[in-house]
Amino acid sequence: MKRSTRFLTDDPMAGLLTWLVGAAVIVLVCGNCAWSGDSPSGNIVDQAYQLRLDGKVDSAKILLDGHIAANPADAAAYYELARIYYYMGPGDMKNLESTTESAGKSIQKAVELDPGNPIYRYFAARVVFLKSYIAMESDQERAKELVAAIQLAYETVLESKPDYGEPMLNLIELYGGLPAELGRDSSKAAQYEARLKKIDPVLAGEGYCIMMPDDFDRIAYWEDMTQQSPGDLRLLEELGKTCLRERKTDQGVAYLEEVIKAEPSNSVLYLVIANSHIMNARMDEKARETSIPLAMQAVSDFLAAEPIAPLKAYALGLMAKLNYAQGKEAEGDKWLEEAKAADAYFSKASGIPIADLFVPPDEISHNHSYLFQMF
Question: What φ, ψ does residue 265 adopt, rounded to 5°?
């Protein structure tokens, strides 16, 4: 039962974010806007990317290391190498700091070689966030300074693409969602929210909800938005997630299942549902008996959709944890071995691996993942 207790009460990625804003963990989920840049990599980067999606991380890294040795000015190769290192981190928590450092060096090289590329800038900001997060774990006195570095990193993304909505929303979270002692600036957050209204009303709505006080009725807000634009799956998804955050679980699950039914490619939402049930089990001991089986069913539904290897392995790892949480050691071990077989570097963190890792190398990601909340 030792593993059971740890799984439900102590997550290795959750401590500092809880201290920051009462949230837990880093999160998930792909964009579709090709960015054309000069690159000699050709198929090599695409091959490495596909190898990683197939769960062959070591092979992908070996391929890129050899290519970079022969082509040291290939920004695209450094970017993909940075994503490999970033992906490896949560798969081996003992080496999280070193792999994140390597990711930082690789993405910085990509930015130096192609400074106008928003793909590289956005991923660089994500790496700055993770590096700062790790640093704050051991040095909370530098928290405000480190948050300022994160804010600057996301602002730099907009220098290369001023109409990029997702980093704007990250900035609203950084300026409008943190305590004053960590750099809250409501006026800056409002400026970004105003810019987002002209670009993407859904992202703008998310930003607006971030800035509102705790007693603001976010469910009612998204219900009104969905009534104004019936059939908009993005709005329905946000309504469902908001219900889950407010622990209106049955309501939230129903909305997200409606999204999945309308668009099966959104099957990753099953993992969101699973994590919501897991959070309920963590927060309420009485909910364990019902929440854990519901989480397992959601994970099973996700696996039935035949996901890519990294997400399949993550889901199999969740099944292992859920079995351990029920005291089923033998079953948990079987699921764990399956996870390792699918991808040896599968994420051990509770948050779903961020979708930016699974966007093709030359595409701009239009997946937003929150920095300070699970989904």
Answer: -65, -10
Helical segments of 114-231, H only = 118-138, 143-160, 165-176, 186-197, 201-211, 218-228
pLDDT tens digits, residue range 286-318? 889 999 999 999 999 999 999 999 999 999 999
- Write the Ramachandran bin of 99: left for phi over 0, alpha for psi from -120 to 50, otherwise beta: alpha
Task: Please tell me the distance from the alpha carbon of residue 158 to that of residue 154, in angstroms, as a whole number.
Answer: 7
Chain position carrying tokens 């070193």: 98
Whole-model pTM? Answer: 0.89
Residue 354 is classified by DSSP as P
Q: Which residues contact 314 (CB under 8 A, 6 or more apart)?
A: 271, 339, 346, 347, 352, 353
Residue carrying structure tokens 């998804």:
237
What is the biggest distance separating any 2 CA atoms in the chain, rounded to whole angstroms? Answer: 59
Considering only CA atoms, which of 194, 247, 203 is closest in space to residue 225?
Answer: 203
Tokens of 317: 């790892």
Residue 143 corresponds to which tokens in the numbers above? 């928290």
CB 132 within 8 A of CB 142: no
Q: How far apart are CA 301 and CA 284, in angstroms?
A: 24
Q: Which residue has 């908001």 as its token pair?
A: 242
pLDDT number for residue 16: 37
Report the length, in residues, of the chain. Answer: 375
Report the candidate in 124, 120, 114, 121 with the shortest Cα–Cα distance to residue 37.
Answer: 114
Q: What CA–CA distance (Å, rounded) separates 201 from 208? A: 10
Q: Which residues contact 271 (CB under 8 A, 6 or more apart)?
A: 28, 298, 299, 302, 311, 314, 315, 318, 352
